[in-house]
Amino acid sequence: MTSSYWQEELETISADGLRKLQLERLRETITQAANSPYYKKVFEENAISAENIKSLEDVKRLPFTTKDDLRANYPYGFAAVPLQKCIRVHSSSGTTGNPTVVLHSRKDIDLWSDQVARCMYMVGLRDTDVFQNTSGYGMFTGGLGFQYGAEKLGALTVPAAAGNSKRQIKFIMDFGTTALHIIPSYATRLAEIFQDMNINPRTDTKLRVFCMGAEPHSEEQRLRIEKLLGVKAYNCFGMSEMNGPGVAFECTEQKGLHIWEDYVIAEIIDPLTLEPVPDGEIGELVLTTLQREAMPLIRYRTHDLTRFLPGHCPCGRTHRRIDRFKGRSDDMIILKGVNIFPVQIEKILMGFGELAGNYLITIETVGNNDEMLIEVELSDLFTDNYGILERLNRKIVRQLRDELLITPRVKLLSKGSLPVTEGKAVRVKDLRKF
């Protein structure tokens, strides 16, 4: 009988064994991180060295690292190896400033591939599967992360990339695809296309497993996807700063995401006091890399809100589980797998002299798709001479699409139409139910 574990010794390691392994790797990480210009300075200022790390509790003595730190030290201030030893760079989209950059050595890529393969094996994928990747390739980590994980697993891979739904379905039918990497909103869209094409994915395809991530989704949405497409859909968590996909993943029990503690030290803190919260309480996830060579990160504040789930998982894996994410402690919007900051939208809107300063971003689910509506007031000096309002709307939408990589709806309102609140303006209403 084939084992249900990719790396059984590590996946079922004892609590004491895991803590010992983490402490050893934390000390190695501190030594490695000290080679980077950023951490060399931080460690010297705070008298930090590997010799000072006596137990895992000492991780709380280390300073946090933030996205702002990454941007301020763009592009190579966190590099802990010479650039000639790096073989890959990924970056996130920026706001008005620098993007965040993550460097990878050959060892980093190999370990990341193994981490993703472990996740895929955990949900029943094997070298007999045909794995189709509907994520974008390039600077976005979702495409290449799953590509290399599937190849490490030995599955036949179909790097279909994003979009072109009819072509996706043709590949699914022609190649006998059994598994997809897909974002939840696109999964519901794909179900609609199947229906339009009069194809029943339950009986007319070999699909059985979806690996879903990149945007928050509710349990209800997951169950709807499973029902519509006749698959089991597993939640995946990843972020480029921690390599990409594969940081945490559901097992077949679907009772939380196992966070791989041989790759990271996970903490959950109160985002205001920055103190740890008790297990079971919601807080901000903080991660420290444990095996990264090119660019270790110490106590990185993810801004993702979750909790550690109590008890042991029936699957037998001993790595702790985190709950489905409840949101973020900052103001980032995740829509269709794209990270969007309100300041990006404001930057575009404020470039138009015809617009006033008041606007509202509403995210809501329309049918099976999450959509963005941007309502913005016109300047009181604006007059719609010769029907220019429609042309103005199209121009705004085009610039927003170029900046955000998604197409929002824009509604132009007369001055004074939007409510005005005392204190901080309400810029975002997220009406989705996660």
Summarize the structure.
This protein is α/β, with parallel strands linked by helices and 434 residues long. The chain has helices spanning 8-11, 15-33, 37-45, 67-72, 106-122, 141-153, 165-175, 184-196, 201-204, 219-229, 342-349, 388-404; strands at residues 86-91, 101-105, 130-133, 156-158, 179-182, 209-212, 232-238, 245-250, 257-259, 264-269, 283-289, 300-306, 321-322, 327-328, 333-335, 338-340, 355-366, 369-378, 409-413, 428-430.
List the helices and strands and how they pair.
Blueprint lengths: L7 H4 L3 H19 L3 H9 L21 H6 L13 E6 L9 E5 H17 L7 E4 L7 H13 L2 E3 L6 H11 L3 E4 L1 H13 L4 H4 L4 E4 L6 H11 L2 E7 L6 E6 L6 E3 L4 E6 L13 E7 L10 E7 L14 E2 L4 E2 L4 E3 L2 E3 L1 H8 L5 E12 L2 E10 L9 H17 L4 E5 L14 E3 L4
Parallel strand pairs: 3-4, 3-5, 5-6, 6-7, 17-20, 18-19
Antiparallel strand pairs: 1-2, 7-8, 8-9, 9-13, 10-11, 11-12, 12-14, 15-16, 17-18
Helix pairs in contact: 5-6, 8-10, 11-12
Number of strands: 20
Summing up helix and strand content along with how strands pair, one would put the structural category as alpha/beta
> What general outline do the C-alpha atoms trace?
globular
* Gap from first CA to last CA: 38 Å
| Helix content bin | 25-40%
* Averaged pLDDT: 91
Determine the strand fraction and express it as a percent band: 15-25%
Q: Would you identify the regions where 5 or more consecutive residues have pLDDT less than 50?
A: none
Largest sheet: spatial strand order: 4-3-5-6-7-8-9-13
Main sheet record: 8 strands, mixed
Radius of gyration: 23 Å
The helix tally amounts to 12
